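From the shared-data thread, chain only:
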Amino acid sequence: MAGLVGPDEAAQSEKQTAKGDRPEGLARDVTAIKIGDCLLGYKAVQRRMRASRWNHFRGRMREIEKLIRHRHGDIVPEADDALIYVEVIAGLALVEFKEEFVELVLGWAARWLPWAGKADIEDVIYERTKVRFSDLSADALGHALHLSYAERSALDIRTIGAFDVPKRKRAKLQKEKRRQRDRSRKEEQRRADGALSRADYLANSFSQVRPWEAFGISRRTWERRGKPMPDAATISDCALNSLAA
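Structure, as tokens:
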């Protein structure tokens, strides 16, 4: 049968295709072809690869680049504190890639700080390797980059903290924002379902309008008489008199 191969050939084909060219996001798999209990052979098929897990280093690097674009544009200008971005990237890359981090930092610095000499970048890299460096916390990164809470919120930065608002307070503020969003969403849903807002309800409620006063009777008597309604002008006059009183 065309397209079918033996089990040994299928295994060999799978090893070869693992190294061969294939569309991005696709992988080769081997499936058995059967009719009932009769094994006819094996067939190589393409399957969709599972998306790789979110990379913490890559996510932080992208947020640092977002911060740079917001503050400086496409290139970090030459300044005394400009190399702080390289120091942060070098620290993060060292933890993630160990001894292989040097080329990554050099390439990143050439893109964002093209005016910086290679010797200056290598000095930063050397400083990172002199000490036993551990991964920076979100708040430590926020302090290093002097990232304010307002700037963090405006740029929707999530993996880096803020120097002026500690983590615990940020969590409380975020919780309150979620509550506010939930309240707004529920309110919009009630309006879509036809429910009156509180202001509209009070404006039209009998306790505010007090139509029985237009007839000079009590509310209980008004209810026994079937809740008759006076004309709108009379109701408005009664409401104004109630407010004046």
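The first strand starts at residue 26 and ends at 35.
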